[in-house]
Amino acid sequence: MNPSINDYPLGETEQSLQGKEMNVALCHPGVRSWMCSDALAVEKTNNGPLVLNHIYYACCHLRSCVPPGLSDSPAGLEKRGQVFGQNFIPPKKPKTFLQLVWEALQDVTLIILEMAAIISLALSFYQPPGEESEVCGKGTGGAEDEGEAEAGWIEGAAILLSVICVVLVTAFNDWSKEKQFRGLQSRIEQEQRFAVVRNSNVIQIPVADMVVGDVAQVKYGDLLPADGILIQGNDLKIDESSLTGESDHVRKSVDKDPMLLSGTHVMEGSGRMLVTAVGINSQTGIIFTLLGAGEGEEEKKDKKDSCTAKQDGAVAMEMQPLKSAEGGEVEEKEKKKANVPKKEKSVLQGKLTKLAVQIGKAGLVMSAITVIILLLYFVIETFVVERRVWHPECTPVYVQYFVKFFIIGVTVLVVAVPEGLPLAVTISLAYSVKKMMKDNNLVRHLDACETMGNATAICSDKTGTLTTNRMTVVQAYIGDQRFHEIPDPSQVNAKTLEVLVSAIAVNSAYTSKIMPPDTEGSLPKQVGNKTECALLGFVLDLKRDYATVREQIPEEMLYKVYTFNSVRKSMSTVVRLPDGSFRLYSKGASEIVLKKCAFILDAGGEPRSFRPRDRDEMVKKVIEPMACDGLRTICIAFRDLSANPEPDWDNEAEIVTELTCIAVVGIEDPVRPEVPEAIRKCQRAGITVRMVTGDNINTARAIAAKCGIIQPGDDFLCLEGKDFNRRIRNEKGEIEQERIDKIWPKLRVLARSSPTDKHTLVKGIIDSTVMEQRQVVAVTGDGTNDGPALKKADVGFAMGIAGTDVAKEASDIILTDDNFSSIVKAVMWGRNVYDSISKFLQFQLTVNVVAVIVAFTGACITQDSPLKAVQMLWVNLIMDTFASLALATEPPTESLLLRKPYGRNNPLISRTMMKNISGHAVYQLTVIFTLLFAGEKIFNIDNGRKAPLHSPPSEHYTIIFNTFVLMQLFNEINARKIHGERNVFDGIFSNPIFCSIVLGTFAVQVVIVQFGGKPFSCAPLNVEQWLWCLFVGVGELLWGQVIATVPTSHLKCLKEAGHGPGTDDILDEELAEDEEEIDHAERELRRGQILWFRGLNRIQTQVQFSTDLPQQVYFFPPCHKAAPVLNPKYFFCFCSVPSVLLYFMITNFSRCRNVFSVLTYMTN
C-alpha cells in the first residue's frame, strides 16, 4: 500500500519526500480527491512523467489539502503552532513600575521641590552658637525651645515624603492607564476574525488562531493577517502601499504574482490563499522584529521606534517603511514629518492645552513675584532698616530663610498649576470607554469620546445602520409582469425560472448563504452579503435550491469574475457551458444594468428587443414605484458569448454589454424601530443627520422620510452623486468650496454616491466657514473605499458586523451592532466627558485661585504662607486626585441631549462657571482672611502670624487649613452642576464613587489635623473648633444657592476662558515633535500632561543659556532703555535655585526692570 501524504512529518522538503517514494503516492488517483482543481493538480507533460507546480509543492511541504482545508483536530492545529509559530506578534514589553516611577520623578516641579527640601533638610541640622544669634538678627530667635529647634528637619522630610507619595500615585496611575490601553488593544485584536476552510466547511476564526497550511478565504475589504500563496482568485487586486509605498493596486493571479503578504489590503475581488507564514515569520512580523517589537534589547530606541512599532489600536498591524542599514533615521524622521499627515488635536485637547499654558504662565509669574517680594522684604528689613552686616557665620541662618521663601514660591506654583486635570481627563475618558463598550461602541482612539460631544453633523450610511440589514425580496418584475409579492413558481415561465435561479446562485459570492435558524420558529440566518442573501432567499421562496446549482458549478470552475465595487455597482460572472461557449451572468443597480441591456425575456421566456424608450417606461412604471416604497431595486441579466474567437476578458466594457434582462426585484430592508426616535434626539440636540447611500434616490428619500431625516414642509435637498458633483465643480472640473457651501447646509440625502462623493462632502463641511462655529462631523462607513472619509471625519464610525477590516482600521469607533442608536449613545457619553472635565475645572480653579491668593498675600504681609508646603501638597496633589476621580465618573443623563453642542470655539469655562468660580472664591477668601487676621480673637487662641523658623504648629493656622479643606469638600458637591442648576444633590447617590471619595477625604482630613503634628504643621483642634470649621464649610452649599440666584446675564464683567487654540498657535508643532519621543500608550492616554509644565521646562533652557553670560552684574538706571541683565551665578550667594526663577523673570518680563535694578544695587 502506498504511503499517505499525512504519513510524513511537517516541514519535509520536496526532495526528501521524493526520496521516500512520495512520487509513487502522488501518482495515485486519490491525489485528485484533495487537489481537485485542474489548476492545482498534478499535470502531465507530453512525455508522460508528472510535474509538480509551485502550489502543489507548497501543499506537500505543509501537508495541507485543497480545497477541503485542514482538519479541525486541536492536536494537529497545536502541532502546527509549535512547528511554524502562532499568528501573533508579541508587543513591546510594557514599562515596569520602577521605570514609570523614574519618569514621574522627571517632573520639573517635583525636582525643584526635592532640591528645596534637601537644602532645607541639610540646613536644619546646623545650629549657630547662641551668642551669635543677636548678630544674625531673628534667625534663630523666637518662641521655640531646643526640642522644637532640633525638629526643624521634619518640614524638609515631610516635603520629601509628600513628593514620594505623589510620584508613587502618578506612577500607579500611568501603570493603570497603560494596562487599560493594552486591554483595549487586546479586545480589538479579539474582534478581528477571518474566514478559513476546515473539513470542507467555511468558518470564522480569530486571526490569532490561524495556522500555516490553512486555506483562507480572501474577499474585498480584508486586511490580510498572514502571508500566503493565492490558489484561486477572481479579479483580485491588492493595495501593497503599506509595504512598497506604491499606491497603485497590484493584480494577483494564480499563474502570475500569486504571493499575498500580511498587512496588505484587498481592494477588489475574492479568492483563496494557502497560508505559508504567520506571526513573526510573516512579512509584518519580520519588519516588526527589526523594529524591536517583542524585544527588550533595543531600549535605547524605544521612544523612537514606538511611534512606528505600534499603530493606533490597529487590529492587524500596518507596515511602515524600514530604516536603511546605513542609519537613515534622520531621513526617515524627515519623511514622517513630510508625508504622514498628523490628525488634528481634538477639541478638548486644544482648549485644555491653551488653558494649561495660560495657567502655567500665571502661576510662574505669581510664584516668582512671591519669592522676589519675600527676598526684598527680608533684605530691606535686615540689611537696610536694622543695618545688620552679613557675617560669614550667619550665612546658614540666612540661607535657611531663603530656602523657606523659595519653598513658599514653589508651593504657590504647585497650587497654581492644575496637575489633577490630565488625570481627570484620563479617568473620564477611560471610564467612558469602558461603559461605551456596553453600549456597543468599541472606542479605538480615546479622544473620539469627547469629540463626539461636540458633533454637529452625522453623515450616516443607510443599509444596516438606519435599517435592520435583514434584506428580503418582496416585489419582482418577471416576464413582463409585476408581482407585488413573491410569485408562485407556476406563475413564472420554466425556462425563465431556470436561468434566473442559475444567475442568482452562480453570480453571488459562494460565502453568501442561507443557514437554518438557531432556534425553532425564528428566521433563517443570513451569512455573507445581505443583498445576495436576499436573492438566495428569493430562490428558496421560488421552491428551488441554489446549493444544487453550486454543486454542479463549484467556485473553482468559474471562468471569470468581475467583482462588485463602488465604481461598477454591479457584479458579473462568466461560466463555460458544456458546448464550450460562455455565459455571463450580471446583477447590480437596476438603472445601471438596464442601460447595458439590449433584450428582455418576455412571458414565454424568449428574448425580445429592449429599446431605450422601453427602458424609460420600465423605470417609470416599475423601478420608481418600487423605490418610492423604500425598496432597493436589483436587475438580473445574462449574455451568451461564443468561444470562437474567445472574448478579450480584460475588455470589460465590451463583455458586459448587450445583456438580456431576466428580472428586476425589489428588496426591502426595514428601518430599525429605534432609529426614528434616535434621530429625533439628535435633531433636538442640535445635530444634523444626513444620509449618504449608494441606493436609488427615490429609495433613499423614502427611507429618510421613515427615519425622520426629512420632514414634509422642510427646506431640504436630496441629490444624486452626479448632480452633487455637477453643482460643486467649476467648468474645469475642480471642486470649489464656495459651491459646496451653497449646498451642504440644506443637503439631507445624497443618493447613488461613491466613496469619493462622501469624502468630498465630509471635507467640504469640515472646511466650511459659512457657519459661526466650525462643524464637527461624524461619519459611518463599512466599505474599503470609505476609509478616506472615515479618516477625514472628526469621528469615524465603522460597522462591526458589515464593515471591512480596512474601514475598521480607518475608524475611531467601531459599532459592534451596526446600529445608529449606538451613535446617539456615543454623543451622550462625549458630552458627559466634556461636562466632567468642566466640573473638575470649576472645582480645581476655585481651589487654585484661593490658594494662590492666600499664599501670595500671606507671604507678602506675614512673610509666611498660612498654608504650608505639605498642606498644599495634600490639597493640590492628593485631594485633587480623588476629586478628579469623583467628578470624572458621573454617569450621563438624557438631559445632556437637550442642549446644543458646545462647538469648537466655545470656551471651556463658560460665564456661568466663571460666576461660580469667582463667587465661591470671594466667599472662601473672605473666610480665610478673616481667620488669618482676626482668628486668634474669634477663637481666643495664640496668634500664628510671623512665627519664627521651626516654631511649633499653631491652632490658628490649623483652623485656617482645616476650614480651607472643608470648604473645598462642600464646594466639590457644588461643582457637580455647571449650568446654573439649583439641586446640587440631584443623582448624587447614583455615583457611589463620589460619595465614597467625599467621605474618605473627610476622614483623612480628620486624621491629618488631629494626628498630623509637625509634618503637616497641624495642632489638634477641639470639638467646638471642628464644629465652627464644619459650619463654615456647609456655608459653601448655602452660598452656592445665593450665587445661582444672580443672573449671569447681569455680570457683563465676567470673561470666558479656555477658548480653542488659534491657528497661529505654535504649540501644535511643539507637540508634534514631542509625540515622536513619547511611548504610544502615554501619547494616547497622557497627551494633556505633555504641556502642563511646558513653561517650566523652558527654565532649563534659560539655565543652560546663563552659563554663556558675562561674569559681571550690569546696572542700568531705571530710565535706561535696555533691560538690566542679572547674572544668576552671582545671585547664587542668596540661593541657587531661586535665581533661576529670577533670571526667567528678568529675561521675560521687561516691565519689572525697576525692581530688579534696585535688587541688583542692593546686592552689590
Task: Describe the 3D structure.
- It is a single chain.
- The chain is an alpha+beta fold and 1164 residues long.
- The protein has 42 helices and 28 strands.
- Strands 12, 13, 16, 17, 18, 19, 20, 21 and 22 form a nine-stranded mixed beta sheet that branches.
- A hairpin with a 2-residue loop joins strand 3 and strand 4.
- Helix 7 runs antiparallel to helix 9 and helix 15 runs antiparallel to helix 31.
Concise account of the structure shown:
This protein has 1164 residues and is an alpha+beta fold.
List the SSEs and their pairings.
Elements: H1 14-19, H2 22-27, H3 31-34, E1 43-44, E2 50-51, H4 54-62, H5 74-84, H6 97-105, H7 108-124, H8 146-150, H9 153-191, E3 193-198, E4 201-206, E5 215-219, E6 227-239, H10 241-244, E7 250-252, E8 259-260, E9 265-277, H11 283-290, H12 302-309, H13 329-339, H14 347-385, H15 395-416, H16 420-438, E10 441-443, H17 447-452, E11 457-460, E12 472-478, E13 481-483, H18 494-506, E14 513-515, E15 525-527, H19 530-541, H20 546-552, E16 560-562, E17 570-576, E18 582-589, H21 590-595, E19 597-601, E20 607-609, H22 612-628, E21 631-641, H23 652-655, E22 659-668, H24 675-684, E23 688-692, H25 697-707, E24 717-720, H26 721-728, H27 737-743, E25 747-751, H28 755-767, E26 777-781, H29 787-792, E27 795-799, H30 805-810, E28 813-815, H31 820-862, H32 869-888, H33 911-938, H34 955-974, H35 992-1011, H36 1023-1045, H37 1067-1075, H38 1080-1085, H39 1094-1106, H40 1128-1131, H41 1138-1148, H42 1153-1163
Parallel strand pairs: 11-23, 11-26, 19-22, 23-25, 24-25, 26-27, 27-28
Antiparallel strand pairs: 1-2, 3-4, 3-5, 5-9, 6-7, 6-8, 6-9, 10-28, 12-13, 12-22, 14-15, 16-17, 17-18, 18-21, 19-20, 21-22
